[in-house]
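ARCHIVE CARD
Drawer: 12
Card no.: 0347
Subject: one protein chain, sequence and derived structure
Cross-reference: see card 0346
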Amino acid sequence: MTTPPTPQAPYQQQAQQYPQQPPAPQQNWQGAPAGLYASPIPQRRATLGDALASEWTKIRSVRSTMWTLGIMIVLLLGIGLLSAIAVNASGSELGNTPVLSLGFFGVLLGSICVITLGVMTIASEYGTGMIRTTLTACPSRGRVLTAKAIVFFLLTFVITTVTTALVAVLQTAMLGGVEPTGGDWLRATVGVGLYIATLGLLSLAVGALIRHSAGAITIMIAVVLLPLVLAMFMFAESLADVQQALFEYSIPSQLGAFYDASVASSGPSGWEPLWIMLGVTAVAMIGAHVSLDRRDV
């Protein structure tokens, strides 16, 4: 006796007749495989222009930037005009002293503001932890440092050059004396702007190396003022050569060279201080790039 086959349901018979095909992968509206997240925001490769836009947004939206640059402008304009008013009121003649040299004291004090801003541009991000967000958004650390340097340099150069030019015009209109040449004007405005902006760039590099705002600012102020102060108290004849070198290559003396009012009668003159500062800053920026690339944040 043969056992009759077990009756099957209609859907089972259909499944045997048409074997089930593997499901085709579904795609979402952006074309990404199903199961993977696809951002609705259009994605593209980040460029240096994006990093520049990011750094410009950060530096102009921070309140300390406006305060620091505002104080620098007040120092440059205020001290420059007060010195011209004092000389004019005293009735003394400048003689062979260049008229534009009266702007030196305001620029020297204003350089402290540029140093502070240069350090804060990068060191403050380490204090707040913002540097981790910055490097997450832009993993290329060299691109981040380059964008910071470009934005900071252009900002300080434009403000310093415009302000020193305004001070020079007002001083020349108020006082007589030797008429400045075209070269004198160029060095006292564009040259000073380049030198101060490069000094600020050196501060940014030191801030990237030290990663501490107060420490980096202290180091930079010491670099600017300490050589000249030490030279003033070197009375021993055995230190005469060291004293002379400190006088010639101290930053106030090099800055005075742009006004033909250097502290020492010898040493760098004309545009030479700018080349020296550019060389030192280039070395410091290379060190900052290596440090940012090798060290963890």
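Annotation on reverse: The longest helix spans residues 141-174. The CA atoms of residues 91 and 175 lie 10 Å apart.
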